[in-house]
Amino acid sequence: MNKQFMIFALLLTLAASQTYSITSCTCAQLLSEGDCLKNTTLGCAWDSTKKACAVSTTPVTPTVTYAAYCDTFAETDCPKAKPCTDCGSYAACAWVDKKCTFFTGCTAFAKTTDGDCQAISNRCITDGTHCVEVDACSTYKKQLPCVKNAAGSLCYWDTTNNTCVDANTCDKLPATFATDKDCRDVISTCTTKTGGGCVDSGNNCSDQTLEIQCLHVIGMELPAKTEFVIMHQHHQQTR
């Protein structure tokens, strides 16, 4: 009995004298792919060729979540017009479904007025069915948006070919132009005509057939007094 007690006491003393060390595994000690992939914090990666776990040679990029630029704005502050000085003429954002969101294009929105399209983004106008982007005249497929291009220059709807083109000749300027100035402000060689619209002015005063045209000679601005005299003389000749 005493021997058994002494043996038990010796074993207890020996166990108490042992020092235990708990350390984390290394990648090489992880023998299965599943265990290897679970320990990405150690920088482990599974080598499918060697069928072994090892320290990854690819740097681990931490995942960082950023708030989207447009999401941070309320309706009144949503930068539909021009959010920055170096981001072009148009906006990066649009106000859609009561929130400011990244602008992805006009045609997704079925709006029938320019006002409704502009409320989404200043890049948009309507073609009568849905919004389209303000762009080159040639991109407009319907007559309604065929007014101005992205640069602000006038467009003209060609009824023969049903296409929108640049208004780059006198006969393509709007019929609403009623004065010589209206026409020349757009194309310097154009003057007004009876009923509205523009025609080529010619190079000389004698080329002008209407009193409202007799205000300007190409290459020379006439003083107001001279304009009056020419107009008066022309009026006298036609009486």
From TrEMBL:
Cellular component terms (Gene Ontology):
membrane
Q: Where in the cell is it found?
A: Membrane
Do you know which Pfam families this protein is assigned to? Paramecium_SA, PSI
Its keywords, alphabetically, are: Glycoprotein, Membrane, Signal
For whether the record's keyword set contains Membrane, the answer is: yes
Coarse class of the protein's main subcellular location: membrane
Q: Which residues form the signal peptide?
A: 1-21
Q: Does the keyword Signal apply?
A: yes
Name of protein? Uncharacterized protein
**Per the UniProt entry, what species is this protein from, by scientific name?**
Paramecium tetraurelia
